[in-house]
């Protein structure tokens, strides 16, 4: 008689990935709501409310620490919540998308019968039939990572450096022939219907740094930050502003991805994209010294290290039209999130918290 045993010797002590979504319940019919605090519990500078009011349903917080998510084995490389938003009147639950090396995708949903997570679909792009995706390489500087369309129509997974996997979400929420997808409260979870691959190399992209889905389009639009020719700080006197962004309109039905707009001459130290919510739309390109706003019809830039930029002539395109911040800060290795539709909060590597306000004049 043979058997297998597994024992966790050292449990993880830190959280590496997190996402929020309506996993165990849908947006409607939820008993959990956030109520505003009474006026006595608030700072005196805040306007007092006549009566407590409910903010809305509370989503679940999903965390991943090393190889622990209770149901799967393997270190999680990236994680996102497939959020359907207001589809079906808000009665559809969100699902969890987990990415593992080198190109494995698992989609999890909450099952009321076991009061836990179960796998709704798995996608693997490894093995002999997928060796052509690696183009002869065995290791890559960056692991796979996933981003989700704000309206939940699809998700994108970047694997093997320049291979983009498009995961199309099922419009009805369930798999083909799945008539028992409804849960006890009548809600169904978001699911993946099909997938296909876009070769970014065929689109003349060489070094992809980040990508994101943006708001305000009928079809999903993916903005990709990439660099045509590599450079570094000691070489910017000869080659600088090597980054650019390209916006692709993703048609999951026709499996087409035409280029609808692009922006060039972005700094070589640009490394992160942040989608701007509606009604403004567009995307923020975050670099170590500047923040660029780009959309299909407008663009602007904010200089964060003004003294450094004006003193150096080794590649920074100084212009009188460049908006300058009143203080200096370095934003390399920063994180950002939205507090409202036009206010973003950024955390710098020094521990500073910064508020960035977008002034929208129409």
TrEMBL record:
InterPro entries: Beta-prop_RSE1/DDB1/CPSF1_1st, RSE1/DDB1/CFT1, WD40/YVTN_repeat-like_dom_sf. Residues 72-361 form the RSE1/DDB1/CPSF1 first beta-propeller domain. It comes from the Eukaryota. It holds the Pfam family Beta-prop_RSE1_1st. This is RSE1/DDB1/CPSF1 first beta-propeller domain-containing protein. It comes from Escallonia herrerae.
């Amino acid at each position: 008689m043979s058997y297998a045993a597994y024992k966790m010797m050292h449990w993880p002590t830190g959280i590496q990935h997190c996402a929020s979504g309506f996993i165990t319940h849908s947006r409607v019919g939820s008993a959990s709501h956030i109520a505003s605090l009474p006026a006595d519990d608030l700072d005196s500078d805040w306007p007092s409310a006549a009566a407590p009011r409910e903010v809305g349903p509370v989503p679940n917080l999903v965390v991943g620490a090393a190889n622990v998510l209770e149901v799967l084995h393997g270190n999680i490389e990236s994680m996102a919540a497939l959020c359907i938003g207001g589809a079906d009147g808000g009665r559809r639950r969100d699902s969890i998308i987990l990415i593992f090396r080198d190109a494995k995708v698992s989609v999890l949903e909450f099952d009321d019968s076991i009061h836990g997570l179960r796998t709704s679909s798995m996608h693997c792009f490894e093995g002999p039939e997928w060796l052509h995706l690696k183009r002869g390489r065995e290791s890559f500087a960056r692991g796979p990572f996933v981003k989700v369309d704000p309206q939940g129509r699809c998700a994108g997974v970047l694997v093997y450096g320049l291979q983009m996997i498009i995961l199309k979400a099922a419009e009805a929420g369930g798999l083909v022939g799945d008539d028992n997808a409804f849960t006890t409260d009548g809600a169904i979870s978001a699911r993946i219907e099909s997938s296909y691959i876009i070769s970014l190399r065929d689109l003349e992209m060489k070094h992809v740094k980040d990508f994101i889905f943006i708001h305000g389009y009928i079809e999903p639009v993916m903005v990709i930050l990439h660099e045509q020719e590599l450079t570094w700080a000691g070489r910017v006197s000869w080659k600088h502003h090597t980054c650019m962004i390209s916006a692709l309109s993703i048609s999951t039905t026709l499996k087409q991805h035409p280029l609808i707009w692009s922006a060039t001459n972005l700094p070589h130290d640009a490394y992160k994209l942040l989608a701007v919510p509606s009604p403004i739309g567009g995307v923020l390109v975050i670099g170590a010294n500047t923040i660029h706003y780009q959309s299909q019809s407008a663009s602007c830039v904010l200089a964060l290290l003004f003294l450094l930029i004006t003193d150096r002539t080794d590649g920074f395109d100084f212009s009188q039209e460049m908006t300058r911040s009143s203080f200096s800060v370095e934003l390399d290795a920063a994180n950002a999130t939205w507090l409202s539709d036009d206010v973003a909060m950024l955390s710098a590597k020094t521990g500073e918290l910064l508020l960035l306000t977008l002034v929208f004049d129409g």
